């Protein structure tokens, strides 16, 4: 015999079913974010914060080593398969990916990212744009160029920070003194001085290797000066002839046989965490030589054009790039210098950095970030770098004249790019 359900029991049953349905409906979107170390750490930091704002979104982080990640993303864009919803990109690959036509133009509706441009450091936002002004990627962090040095080693040599920063020539002369009196090198390789010099001497709106019209510039006075400085550094025996990010590089820091490194401000985090924690309190940060300002590094987020969850992906990209709390958290925890100006909290900028001997170095980086010229990315930046490095090897290892090497390199770049 059928009997009607008790009203209270029926209400409880319906309520339980409704709650279960609601809970099931919350976790309906899984966003896949592809990244690389240590940029991926910012995603790990973001997940609990983002979950509070978007309880219905799960973040799946897929991380590969730096070169493997960018190779995988190149293949994914070419084939249209295995694409993430959100793609992390390093600045050296921005030009190539921006011109691939496989990324959403975030400057167009419904994104309208150009309305956010005023939030960012002046040089940062244009770096994510292609030659036609399309916004291929949004900057998440930037790399104000910095000269890191071991104060204790310089003190032993009787060399001051001012000796290093007065000019490029004085940097080499002072470094030679350090080498002679302590045995420590001041450059990882002579290529370091080339890479920082060409970044510090870009005219606003031009590219690293190409002019505003996209023409190769390897045979210009800017590159000639950079190569001449590298030759002088090699003759002074101040470069260790080792590759950055290698085991030898790490060991050179730990042994105290490398007493200086010019890179982005983010290097402070790497030195602190794993490169040279043993020398805490001995390192300092200084401006680049000759009053130069340069961008070294930087990371971006992009959305593939064939993505299936673009609306949700865009919300995540905005959170990672324009949310002050998120940007500040990455700055505090990772040393990733924020892409937006608002995240430069004055109190935090003034805080002493124990690893840098109590120096409030973030003030130095904030000043640099405000003065770095905008740099135009190009899809052939990687090709140009490869050709330039080969030319530098010809000069340093085989004694080829600078003018001859650069002319040959520029001609080769013209052929490769058909420009």
TrEMBL record:
SUPFAM superfamilies: Periplasmic binding protein-like II. One of its GO terms (cellular component) is periplasmic space. Gene3D superfamilies: Periplasmic binding protein-like II (3.40.190.10). InterPro entries: Bact_solute-bd_prot1, SBP. Its main location: periplasm. It is found in: Periplasm. Pfam families: SBP_bac_8 (PF13416). This is Sugar ABC transporter substrate-binding protein. It comes from Piscinibacter gummiphilus.
């Amino acid at each position: 015999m059928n009997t009607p359900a008790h009203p209270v029991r029926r209400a409880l049953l319906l309520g339980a079913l409704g709650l279960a349905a609601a809970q099931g409906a919350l976790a309906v979107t899984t966003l896949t974010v592809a990244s690389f170390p240590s940029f991926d750490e910012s995603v790990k930091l973001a997940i609990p914060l983002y979950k509070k704002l978007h309880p219905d979104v799960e973040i799946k982080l897929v991380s590969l080593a730096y070169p493997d990640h960018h190779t995988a993303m190149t293949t994914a864009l070419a084939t249209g398969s295995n694409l993430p919803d959100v793609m992390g990109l390093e600045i050296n690959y921005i030009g190539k990916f921006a011109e691939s036509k496989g990324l959403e133009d975030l400057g167009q509706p419904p994104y309208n990212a150009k309305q956010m441009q005023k939030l960012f450091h002046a040089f940062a936002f244009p770096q994510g744009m292609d030659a036609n002004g399309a916004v291929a990627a949004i900057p998440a962090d930037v790399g104000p160029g910095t000269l890191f040095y071991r104060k204790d080693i310089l003190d032993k040599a009787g060399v001051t920070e001012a000796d290093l920063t007065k000019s490029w020539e004085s940097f080499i002369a002072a470094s030679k003194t350090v080498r002679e009196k302590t045995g420590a090198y001041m450059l990882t390789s002579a290529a370091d001085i080339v890479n920082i010099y060409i970044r510090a001497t870009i005219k606003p709106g031009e590219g690293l290797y190409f002019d505003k019209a996209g023409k190769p510039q390897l045979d210009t006075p800017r590159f000639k000066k950079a190569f001449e400085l590298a030759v002088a550094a090699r003759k002074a025996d101040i470069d260790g002839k080792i590759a950055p990010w290698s085991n030898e590089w790490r060991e050179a820091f730990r042994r105290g046989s490398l007493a200086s490194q010019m890179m982005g401000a983010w290097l402070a985090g790497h030195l602190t965490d794993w490169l040279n924690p043993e020398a805490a309190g001995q390192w300092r940060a200084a401006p680049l030589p000759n009053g130069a300002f340069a961008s070294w590094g930087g990371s971006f987020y992009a959305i593939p054009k064939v993505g299936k969850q673009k609306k949700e992906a865009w919300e995540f990209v905005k959170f990672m790039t324009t949310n002050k709390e998120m940007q500040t958290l990455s700055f505090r925890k990772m040393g990733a210098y924020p892409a937006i100006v608002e995240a430069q909290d004055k109190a935090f900028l003034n805080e002493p950095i124990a690893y840098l001997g109590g120096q409030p170095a973030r003030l130095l980086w904030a000043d640099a970030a405000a003065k770095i010229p905008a740099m135009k990315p190009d899809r052939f930046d990687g090709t140009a770098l490869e050709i330039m490095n080969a030319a530098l090897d010809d000069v340093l290892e085989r004694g080829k004249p600078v003018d001859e090497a650069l002319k040959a390199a520029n001609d080769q770049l013209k052929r490769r790019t058909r420009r």
